[in-house]
Amino acid sequence: MKNLSTLILVLIVFQVNAQQRNLAEKLGYAPNDKLLIIHADDIGLAHSENIATVAAMKNGVVNSTSIMMPSPWATEVAELVKDMPDIDLGVHITLTDEWFNYRWGPISSKSEVSGLVGEDGYFHFDCASVAQNASPEEVEKEMRAQIDAAIAIGIKPTHLDSHMGCVFSGRPEFVASYLRLAEEYGIPAMVVEELYQGVVVPNQELFAGIDLNQVKIVDNVAIGSPEIYDSIGLSAYYTDLLKNLQPGLNVLLIHVAYDDEEMRAITTRFDHWHARWRQKDFDFFTSERAKKLLEENNIKLVTWKEIGKL
C-alpha cells in the first residue's frame, strides 16, 4: 500500500509538471516566453479603488482584477464594467477585514459561519484568527456565497484568488475547498508552485475527486512589500522586476486607487498599503514608462480568462 501511495504521488507531480511545461505553448507562446498578468487586487473595496482600477485597465497596462464581494462598494463594480465585456475579473475570496474604521463581515449568515466573525461582529483582522476559529465547512460556505454573489450582480468570474492569502495560510482543507469550487464553477484558481508542492502534494487525500491536471500553477508571483516601499520605492522595484522577469507564467499583484479623502479615511493608521501606496501603483501602471518596459523586455500580457479557456 505504501508503494502504491508513493507511485500515485509521483504520477500526480509528473502530470502537473508536464501540464505546466506546456502551458505557454497551449496559450500559443514559446516555452521560454515571458508571460505576465498585471493584477489589481481589491476592486470593490471603495469607490476610489473601483474607478482607479477601471481607469488603469482602460488606459494603462493593468489587465486583470478581482472583486471583494463582502466590501460595501462591490455592487458598483458591476455597473462600472458593463462596457467591458472581455474584462478579466475574478473573485478575491475575502475572509478578513484588516481596516480599523471600515468594517464588514461575511455574506453568509453570521449564525452559519460564526467562526469567521470576531467579537466586534465583523470579520477577523488577520488570517491566523481565521485558521484558528473557522471550520473548513464555514470557509467553504462563505467562499461559495461570495462567488454566487458576484454572479448574482452580473459578473462572470474568470478566476479565484485570495485576499491576504488567507486561503493558503490557514489549513489544507481551505485550499481543497478553493480548488473544488474553482473546478465546480469552471474557472482557474491562482495557485503557486510552492503552495502546490507544500500543501496539495503532501495532503493528497484531501484533494480526492479534484482533477489536479486542471490546476493552472503560476511559476512566479510578485508583490511589493513594506520593506520595498520604505527602501528603494515601488517604482524602482517594478522597473527592476520587469527588466528581469523570468520565462513562464508570472503574476504581479498590485493595488490601485487614488490618494483622495475616501482612501485616506479607509486606510487611516496604516503605514503601508495606504492611499499613497495605491496612488503610486496607479501612476506607474498607467505611465508610458510601464508600457515601454513591457515592449523593451518582450513581455507578453496574458489573462486568467485566456488560461481558463484551456
UniProtKB/TrEMBL annotation:
GO terms for biological process: carbohydrate metabolic process. One of its GO terms (molecular function) is deacetylase activity. Keywords: Carbohydrate metabolism, Hydrolase, Magnesium, Metal-binding. The keyword Magnesium applies. Signal peptide: none annotated. SUPFAM superfamilies: Glycoside hydrolase/deacetylase (SSF88713). This is Cellobiose phosphotransferase system YdjC-like protein. It comes from the Bacteria. The keyword Nucleotide-binding does not apply. Its cofactor is Mg(2+).
